[in-house]
Design brief:
A hairpin with a 3-residue loop joins strand 23 and strand 24. The chain has 1 helix and 28 strands. The two termini are 28 Å apart. By secondary structure, the chain is an all-beta fold. A 4-stranded antiparallel beta sheet has the order 2-1-28-27, with no helix packed on it. A 4-stranded antiparallel beta sheet has the order 3-4-5-6, with no helix packed on it.
Length: 380
Amino acid sequence: MPNFSGIWNLKEQVQAIAAGRWTGLPGPQLFAWGDNGGGQVGDLSTARRSSPVQVSGGLSWSTASAGGSFNVGLNEDGNLYSWGSGGNGVLGDNTVVSKSSPIQVGALTNWQSLGGAREHVFAVKTDNTLWAWGSNGQGRLGDNTTISKSSPIQIGALTNWSQASGGNGESAAVKTDGTIWAWGRNYRGQLGLNDRVYRSSPVQIGALTTWLYVDAATNGCVALKTDGTMWAWGGNSTGQVGDNTRTDRSSPVQIGALTNWAQISRFSYHTLARKTTGELWAWGGNSYGRLGDNTTIYRSSPIQIGALTTWSSIAAGNVHSIATTTGKTLFAWGYNVRGQVGDGTVINRSSPVQIGALAEWTFVYCGTYSSLALTAGSGN
C-alpha cells in the first residue's frame, strides 16, 4: 500500500482517494516537476521528475514564481521562501549554495508578490516597496550598480510599486499609478524606451498611466492595459511580439485591436495569452510544439489553441507551456525531454495533454526546464 504521508506525487494521491484515505491538504500546496539539477523541484533530491511531486516543507502557499533553475514562493503568513540553484545569490539567503527544499529568506512577514527571472528575483512588499536580488549583470536589479546581491535590497525609496518581472538581463515593473518602468539589458529594444541603451535603474516608458501588468522575458516584454488591450516590444525573431512581423520593436506596439485580454505570459521566444472569454491564444517560436496548436510552425500573430473557453491560469516556459482550466484540471505541452510537461513521459507534446486526474489546480508557473503549480487546498 502506498505511503500516504510526506511528499506526495499524483499517483499516490489518486490511490489515496480511491482508498478513502485522502482528506485534503491543510492549505494550498505547491507541486513541481521537470529538471531538478539545482534542486528546484524542492523534494529533497536532484533527480528529474516527469510528473508532479509535492514541494517539501508542509507549508500552505499563497503564491510562487519560477526562475531559471530555482523557485520562490510566499506562504499564507507572508513569509518568503526559495529553493533550487543558488548561483549569483538568487535564493536571497546571503549564500550561493543550492538548496533542494524551501528555506525561509529573512524573518519578514510582509511580502506581497514575486517575480522570478532567469537569474534574479523581484518582490513587492505590502507597503509597495520594491526589492530585488541575484545576478545584476547589465544593471538588471535596478539599484544603479552591476553588483550581484545575495539577499534582498530595496530598489529606490518609492512606495508605489505594484508588480515587477524579470527576463534574462532585462526587467520591467508597473506602479500603482498605472505607469510602466524598465531597466537592464536593451540590445533588442526590450526596455521599450525607443533606443538600445542599457539602464541600471528604472526609467519610465512613455507617459501613460493606464498600464496594469507587465511580463518581462528574454529580449522582450508583453503588457496589459486597464482597457484590456495587449502590447508588446523587444526581440521579434520568432514572431513573439505578435504584430505579424519578425521586426524588433523598441517601443510598445498594440497587438490587434481587441480589448478583452485577461492574462499574459512570455518566456524566451513564445507568448501565451488568455481572454476574458476563457480562450487560450499563443504565438512566436513553436519548436517542440510549445504553442500547442499540434504543429511546429512559428506564428507571428496570436492563434487560438483548441476550442476550449475554460482556461484559467497560463504560463510560458523556455520551450514548454502549462495551464489550468476553470475546472481546476492541469494541462501541459511542448518540450518534454526533462519531464517538464509532467505526464510521466519524456515525449514532446505539440498540443495540451491533461496531467493526472486531479481537479485541484489553481495557478501555474514555468521555469526554464521545470514547472510549478499550486493546488486549491483543503475545502476549496
